[in-house]
Specification:
Number of domains: 1
Number of strands: 0
Low-confidence stretches: none
Strand content: under 5%
Number of helices: 4
Largest sheet: none
Shape: rod-shaped
Structural class: mainly alpha
Order of helices and strands: HHHH
């Protein structure tokens, strides 16, 4: 019985150590803030995640459909920045 408890405790500890190692190693920040004169290219927008795109649209007061796909969000942002 003691052996079973020991194995369970070791398994739980191993699970948490393994789960901790699977987290993001580093965060890459991509900046597409430009002067008001230049237009951000679609290639630069594709480097961002959908969440980052929506945050950028909010900062620039752009109307973006948040439920759309990432490609739809990119197209909406790009067309409004032209």
């Amino acid at each position: 019985m003691d052996f079973v408890i020991f194995v369970v405790i070791v398994a739980v500890i191993a699970f948490f150590v393994y789960k901790k190692d699977k987290g993001p190693k580093s965060t890459v920040t991509v900046s597409v803030d430009r002067d008001s004169d230049s237009v951000v290219s679609k290639a630069e927008l594709k480097k961002l995640t959908k969440v980052q795109l929506i945050e950028m649209a909010d900062k620039k007061n752009l109307n973006v459909k948040k439920s759309g796909s990432k490609a739809d969000v990119i197209n909406e942002i790009h067309s409004q920045l032209k």
